[in-house]
């Protein structure tokens, strides 16, 4: 009976494994300090090119700096 269960649940287990790997990669990318610094530089460039307003710039900058601060603690 266990062999039948293993065969039956193999596709589901594969999907779960893939989802976990994707989650691991996305968490690593989000926690990467260099990526956050890159986003800060991109944000500043967008502000200087008038693609975003001052309020949006300061709001997003605050979020990114808080995230960086949290990661360094």
TrEMBL record:
InterPro entries to which the protein is assigned, alphabetical: GvpG (IPR007804)
Top-level taxon: Bacteria
Any Pfam family hit: GvpG
Name used for this protein in its record: Gas vesicle protein GvpG
Organism expressing this protein natively: Prosthecochloris marina
């Amino acid at each position: 009976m266990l062999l039948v269960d293993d065969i039956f649940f193999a596709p589901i287990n594969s999907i779960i494994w893939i989802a976990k790997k994707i989650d691991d990669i996305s968490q690593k990318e989000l926690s990467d300090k260099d990526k956050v610094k890159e986003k800060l530089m991109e944000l500043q460039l967008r502000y200087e090119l008038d693609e975003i307003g001052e309020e949006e710039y300061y709001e997003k900058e605050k979020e990114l700096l808080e995230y960086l601060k949290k990661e360094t603690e």
